[in-house]
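User: Please predict structures.

Assistant: First:
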Amino acid sequence: MSQLERWLRRLGNFAKGHNGWRSLQTRLRWLCTGLVFSTLFLSLSLHRLNPADAAMQFPLSTSGAQIVDASGQPVLLRGVNWFGIETETQVPHGLWARDYKEMLAQIKSLGYNLIRLPYAVQSLRASTISGVDFSLGNNRDLQGKTPLEAMDLIIQEAQRQGLMILLDSHRLNNQRIPELWYGDGFTEADWLDTWKLLATRYQKQPNVIGADLKNEPHGRASWGTNDRATDWRLAAERAGNAVLAIAPHWLIVVEGVEKNVPGQRLTGHWQGGNLEGAGRYPVRLNKARKLVYSPHEYGPGVFNQPWFSEAAFPKNLLNRWEVGFNYLASRKIAPVLIGEFGGRQVDASSKEGIWQRQFVNFIQQKKLHFAYWSWNPDSSDTGGILQNDWRTVDQAKQQLLSQLLSSLGAPPLTVAVRPSVPPLSPTVLPSPRPSAAIVPSSSDSKLQVEAIVQSDWQTGFCTAIRVTNRGSASSRNWRLKFQMNQATIRNSWNGTFARQGSRYTVDPPEWGRVIEPNQSVDLGFCAAKRGADYRLKKLAVSSL
């Protein structure tokens, strides 16, 4: 039996397993849960939603510089890169330290709505995964699974948590990023066949929104040269149209190149960051309103590019970004998704910190989409949102990114029936379930606190907490208190959690001690259940 035949058989088994009565029961349970909690949830969060946070109906399309949902409402993609499938472990990293459902819940609780999920063609052809502690909670689900089957489970759980997935063809083998879309022992046909496999496998998976066709074309890769062997723009057309023939509702995400663009104005670019040629030589897809361009951008912590040493730094960056890629959004040619950016320094004095702060401001001002590199702490040159224990959040980095993120507990994503593909039953991704209403402090009524259960499974749960200043003056030095009888906190973020018996106190991080009027601080935790009485109680906030 050929490898392709084995894949097709697995695909058939997967489809059968998800069209049965058990799947229907699961969907009905989620639907009932959403109806029961909808009134309470809306009372907690509707008043503070931005237009981009409104309930999202799939599929997504483009309109000028915007990504819009099926109802035409603008959507902002706010994501992280969680890498590992493209490496020798052949599964996302960190599962040696964390339960994968717990990891997804933490991503959601911090305000992100998208995971860019890198893979390697070699990995998806393999039969085993490694680097997973199968004794940790729901990681047992992954035991004995192939990389592709593990991807299935992670994507399905992301749907339950209200997270979108952008698939990223990051490598061909699981060792390095190739210059072109073929090489390292793989042909263009191998690359295309893998995309066709994934489009077939996930075309009815509602939270898979698109295909990032090839990570960081560079070196010999060109744009607009009409050389079939190197012109990435032509290869992107071939792959994009092959994907759309199977999954016409997906977004097609196309990165830039490094150099070799006729008439380019800038002398240097990051790998995958050069989209100067896309205006003159656009990617032509068979289906309109599905194209998104995606540069990558980094600071001197990754490589000390010449422009970081120019006398005009950092003001010179604005022109670079406009010429290199943002003109596509400014001229309403297509949306721009920053597929990768990141770095260790976020301070206001180092060159990398200055670059990263200015780029975050640029993303915010231009309303660009992004996926931060990375969630993982084991990215050697950038670090991650998580620190090395795979639990603690890098508070300074998250504080910088928080100005780009949507509000806590966004409402459920809904999936519209697509007439262009076999119809799907409308599916509602479950909304976070409230565990406590807004509880004003007995000692300081201007501070209000709410908690929402982001994820709840057999052995554990994760809760997000938001403290908001509803007064007209700054609130300084506050503390949370709550009770939790039969649960043990395994990890937390954006606060110092202290326990005495079943009572907890939480002190904010240094940067969150002062809350300005109408501003909020988000924190939270994941816990293991020790009995039926595990839910948070008597939640209150007070000023010290």
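Second:
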Amino acid sequence: MIRESGSISVNTADIFPIIKKWLYSDKDIFLRELVSNGSDAIAKLKRLVSLGETSVSPEENYYIKVVLNKKNKTIQVIDNGIGMTAEEVKKYINQVAFSGAKEFLEKYKDENEANQIIGHFGLGFYSAFMVSDKVEIDTLSYLEGAEAVKWISDGGTGYEMTASELETRGTIVTLHIADDSKEFLDKYKLRTILEKYCAFLPVEIYLEDAEEQKKDKSKSRKKDGEAGEADEKEDQPKPINDTHPLWLKKPSECTEDEYKEFYRKVFMDFHEPLFWIHLNVDYPFNLKGILYFPKQRNEIENLEGQIKLYNNQVFVADNIKEVIPEFLLLLKGVIDCPDLPLNVSRSFLQNDGYVKKISDHISKKVADKLNSLYKTERENYNKYWDDINPFIKFGCMRDDKFYDRVKDILIFKTTGGDYTLLKDYLNRNSSKHKDQVFYVSDEKQQAQYIRMFKENGLEALYLDTIIDGPFINFLEMKESGVRFSCIDSDISEALKEKSESGKDDKALQEALEGMFKEYLDIKDLKIKAEALKTPDVPAVILLSEHSRRMQEMSRRFGGLSMGALPEDRTLVLNKNNVLIEKLYELKGREDRKADVEMICRHVYDLAKLNHKPLEPDEMSEFVKRSNLLLTRLAELEN
């Protein structure tokens, strides 16, 4: 007859404040730990069976049950795994579990940051006391002739062991839920936790409500045995988990529909992914998973992905950048790496060369997939580009190895509507603007400039996402001698007609510049007259590339003041435009002076409208002036 009591060598008065500090918002981790322990117990038994060291009935189904009894304020986690003997309980519960807790206390009692522990570390069995006043274990070993054992502890330093009435192999852990954890006495709450952490555990998990079962049994008796076989099958409970997730299958065995259905189920995203990468590695490490490239619905959303990390099908945490390259966190997917422990410090991951190899391998597989798409499905690759380019650009800037692997497949959409490599763009335009890349940052606002480019046989690249500002700087460092200029920051020589360089031409230029300076009287605005090949454009405004980048940098850092940031702007007057020519002719007439001033201001505002939106007071003045000019035009006609 087993009867024993003793003391556990860990001071719960010391360790509970630390648990409360780090686990309070994630107390539900206890259920993951206990269910995982049950899964391990079943895995050990299966291993012994496969080695011929024991046997079970061929008809036996392995399971884990989570049983809620709200009336008794208990939660039970039941498995039909390997079970434990009295000596094993002493070893694994009294010594290992609690000594592990003591080691944790010594190691982390001085830590200040809550994010030091991946998966919030868990403490295996010990985590049960986070929500319980008392914990009981009833267990019966698989060994022939073994005696069932009951272990009881109220969370202090003492425990009691006696004989148990358990008659079937396995373990029952009974939690007597504390008053401050009553929220766990809710079936929906427990289901949510199990679906979060154990949705793909390799053992079937059943969630049962003891009170509901009593009602069901009572109803069943009233049927007087009339229920047929079909009714019995219908009443059979279904496991809440998928024991064979898609990532465990060979890629060749998976269908397109299965990949899409898995994506919808895991991420609750009913927009189909663009494509995916199925990872299946056995050497030099064990790694499986599926990474999805989601379709971009808006630019901000695309920068927030979700990579779920699993350990032997047990959910650990989302977006663990120490294991998964940071730029890949823009994707959605699952990674299962059994070689990584469930509970490990982030500092360990950061300094572990093995983890770095896993991260590098994932990055390489993604680059390989992109290269394969580029070479074998170029048309699809072009279609995907608008959705995947922020991810690829971010990856290039964060990981030099990734950049080296994909630099030859970085494409850019052109104002001509096609997609091109940077080197091809530079080659095509070397005679027009050598080593200079013109780009569009705002298609709508820069429509006038795009039209001028197209009409004169020039092309620009679309670089109009949030990430493109820093990416341009990155490319200029990587591509020696190449410089990027926004389409409204510079006038290409190809847009100008050759200067007559005569006396009259110089006089016209000086007169126009002087006239606009006088009437506009705007500080820091440069004015320049050029002969543009597009005659219907009276003027354009250029913002220097340096000034633009300084402003973008300021915005990226939350608009923090970086000192005065004057705009380096130039108003370019088109000497070939009829209106500008007419202004030059009227500049000396006193009777038209007011008209000339009004038109000069209007030309400037029109140029501004094609450069950026007018401020409210500027727009009000623009509308008022437009009405005056139209009225004046009508008067002149009469």
